[in-house]
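hey so i finally got around to running the thing on that chain from the lab meeting. sorry it took forever, my laptop kept dying and i had to restart like 3 times. anyway pasting the input first so we r on the same page abt which one it is
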Amino acid sequence: MPTYTYASQANDGCSDEPPTTSENLSPYPRQIRINGQTAEQLNTCPFATSIVEEHKLTGAFRLRGVTCKRWGCPACARQKIRELAQWTKLAAPNKLLTLTVNPAMHDNPELAWRDTADKVPELIRALRKRFGQVEYLRVIEETEKGWPHYHCMVRSQYLPQPVIKQLWSDLTGAEIVDIRQVSQFFNSFQYLVKYLTKLHRVDWTGRHVTYSRGFFPVPITPQNEPSEWRTIQQIKCEPHKWLDEEMPAEIITQTAPLTYSLRKRPSTWLPPEERPIVKPLTQRDMGW
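ok and heres what got predicted. didnt touch it at all, straight out
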């Protein structure tokens, strides 16, 4: 069986980023007022930068935040969890698969992760060869002793546990495998949120989630659709700081996460640390 590395994840379409979320799934638009609130109060990424965009057809303006998208950022992690959980609910998985590691095969939990994480897609490929289409989303969890194990939400036909157990044992040396059918009433949203929320304690990996290319339904908004917006200004500042300076007391329409509608083209604004220092002219400058 070929060795799988994350560098070759494109072969399986694996990713740890949520698909493009349609605004139809979000509680927007809504009216907000900034009024000097902090990034923590607004639940936004403290590392975000901003861009001002103009609509190519209507000439409307908007401010959009560009976040760091790291699992280590609490605000970005919460947003990623919400989006992944919402899309997982739409994906309608019908099985839960738990894969363990054998501590006797590894010196420590981090090495166990490094040795076994890339075996999950190998297992799925082997199952596809025998049983047809198998789509999955994998999250990691730590045991009480700190060893990793994997929870997979799976959508497939019948998969016999003995076959999975033998394949996983051949790949990793671990023999404890559990697979169970879930009913149509299974709340995959809450289940995924439960496990992903724990992941801030996993310090030795940033790859908390991977999923197969066919697991999620086709996004409502195609990712390859050309944007109707063009960037007219880049600002090295969080959106809430920019809005607090430009329009602190105004009611602002928020159309999407970190996206705000602007009534007019804004004036150029820079945070104090980036504003140019204006020195008085000297006689030499004046040519005297």
